[in-house]
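Onboarding guide, step 5: your first structure request.
Type a short instruction followed by the sequence, for example:

Predict the 3D structure of this protein.
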Amino acid sequence: MKFLLTICLLCSSHSLVLAEFKLPDLGNPADKVLSADDEQRYRQDIKQQMYQYNFMMTDPIVASYTYHLGYQLAAFSNKPDQPFDFFMIPANIINAAAYPGGLIVVYSGLFLETDTESELAGVLAHEIAHVNQRHISRMMAKQQKATAPILLGMLAAIAAAQSSSSGDAPIAIAASMSAIQQQLAINFTRYHEYEADRVGINTLYAAGLNPEGMATFFAKLMQKHRIDPRYQIPEYLRTHPLSVNRVTEAKNRIKAFTPKPVSESELYDYVKERVRVLTADEFTDLSAYYRGTLSSNAGNTNALLYGQALVYYRNNQFEQAWNVLQRITPEASVKYVIDMLKIEVMARMNKVEAERLIDAALKLYPDNEVVLETTAKIMMRATDLKWVDAAIQTIRKLVQLQPENPHYYDLLSIAYYNALKPVQAGEAMARREHLMGRNYRAVRILRNLKKDDDLDYYQSAEINALITAYEPLITERERRREIAADGGIGRRQ
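The system replies with structure tokens like these:
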């Protein structure tokens, strides 16, 4: 049984937007649970559409931290071989969610509510447990007819956010998710929540984090957001209903563990300040926030100074940003994060000195994806083609490290375009379209490249090989949709 839904969304601009989304075949509706293959198709399809709408944070520091923390926990879970994707979504919403096949998202609003890495990890470990225990599939088996709307709740929110031209995208996201969840009553059962708590706490302990993190964060949410009919409770409390008994039981379970040293990343505080700055709305006075917190000596001073410097940088106050950065004495494990902001600031003040800093950073951190992406973005903006060529080589290294990441092919295409190499730019874009499941577009790009009379033998052979690989993957539905998008004009490829 294949679902094909057209969702009509009322965006903040008060206009109706029609968005067609596709979901993989669920198979026989009599199946009691989704197969593992079905789950992976859901995961891949939702992930592709998240990339399509640029929904997750692709900031290299935030994305890398989320990915590595997630996989640190997954490696110590009860199913370490389960594939996962971990994404941060830039919206001031206190929520996190798990989707079939191992797709886990956490909203920036929830991250900013946490006080320690163990609290954030507690949420991720809980969601990992939902995936590993196959709670989503078990729920879906009980309400098969509601399967497509449940999974499309997130995609609807994506479309609403993408269609909004104002600053109300987070509101559109919250409204869409809340409406779907309330309409379909897809809250996890009490048993699912207790099981995810139990399994998640074991994961936290095994991963070397504080097993109390989950209980303390949940207790904090309950205390801070007491149920009151005048106010909206956080999305996380709606989709993951809490109770005093759950929190108490989680705390009691921790007593059975043998105490051992807790190992939290020193990066947490810096990433938290970066998320705070990158997701702040126009009404938030970050300058006043950092003046106040720094003067009161509240929190990690070095991380707060980093956040303040980032605010100055984003406000084009480069001298002030540089002066603040000089006051930071970072731990060795986070020095590269400070170095990257120094390079970004210096690139706006002194290109020669910035080039020296970039060369030093690439030698010091040759395989660090944050360093590679940050320096590449700086170099690809340059008018000097030598810098742009260096950016291309750096991004190609990123592609080798993560060949399934569409974001890196996007960067590669832009770099090639800036280097006046349209054929290579087009080929990189075709590879990106393929990774996002849009093979019709990929083949169309490649066929247009073949019209270039200046193609050499190797370029032509590479393009032909990609067409041969991608063309059989085009579905009839995709073909019809793309032709319709072109106004009904097109030929069968």
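Each response can be followed by summary notes, for example: Confidence is low (pLDDT under 50) at residues 1-31, 145-150, 173-186.
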